[in-house]
Amino acid sequence: MSMKKLAAVVLAMSVSCAAPAFAVAKGGIDVISREEGSGTRGAFIELFGVEQKDTDGKKVDMTTDNADITNSTSVMMTMVAGNPNAIGYASMGSLKKADVKALAISGAAATAENIRKGDYKIARPFNVAAKGQLRPAAQAFLNFVMSAQGQKVIVDNGYVAVNEKAAPFAAKRVAGKVVAAGSSSIAPIMEKLKEAYLLVNPAAEIEVQTSDSTTGMTSAISGICDLGMASRGLKESELKAGLTPVAIAMDGIAVIVNKGNELKGLTVEQVRDIYTGKIENWETLK
């Protein structure tokens, strides 16, 4: 880790999550991004055009080399909350208790309702994936997630249901351990789904392991987990390896800044230019 990145992490961990009211962004923009392998980063660079084709037609992540890198949603929130000049991005559903501000994008606020209406277009699926036939315990849990009760948990926690007309869950006491592993963006809602499921099936044991989307897919391919979690679409290589994805929810990606930042919104093009290093100062955006 470079001295700049280390300093950014130390600063974020040492300050209060509540930014002072007078902390107005000025000067250089401190760009914060997720690590390679993160589904949120993969979806972000695709949706904002940060991923671009080179002369050979190959897709290349053009995120500026000056970006500070964090490997989890929670650290991203802490770094942005503690730095008046920071900009980052995170799962919209994870913002409920975060002390950061989500910017409107191209005039649309980052809300679940705007995703449902199609006004906020920076959205991606939350997928779980498995290789081959699920064991009975894992299939029962997935059935709950896709049921009316499971989809209600998703909506109640700020995400968008994929099936608003889902049938009620037919409660069955299916015993056995189920392991879901992967995306740190999906992990919080998976924990909520776990809590709700255990109320109707206390015979089950659900373990949620948090890492990133790529690790989740690798774990599902190798059989380390029952359900891999990916906050992006599956790659062709993952599908060829035998994974079958199921979208359990839709989630927006929010562009976040410190609460003291006076900026209210950006265009897709402005976000792209910030993350590719073309825009480096806050004054450029005012």
UniProtKB/TrEMBL annotation:
The UniProt entry, under InterPro entries, shows:
PBP_domain, Phosphate_ABC_transporter
The region annotated as signal peptide is 1-23
What PROSITE patterns does the database record attribute to this sequence? PROKAR_LIPOPROTEIN
Glycoprotein among keywords: no
Q: Does the keyword Signal apply?
A: yes
Q: What keywords tag this UniProt record?
A: Signal
Which residues are in the PBP domain? 25-148, 172-283
Q: Which SUPFAM superfamilies match?
A: Periplasmic binding protein-like II
Protein name as it appears in the record: Phosphate ABC transporter substrate-binding protein
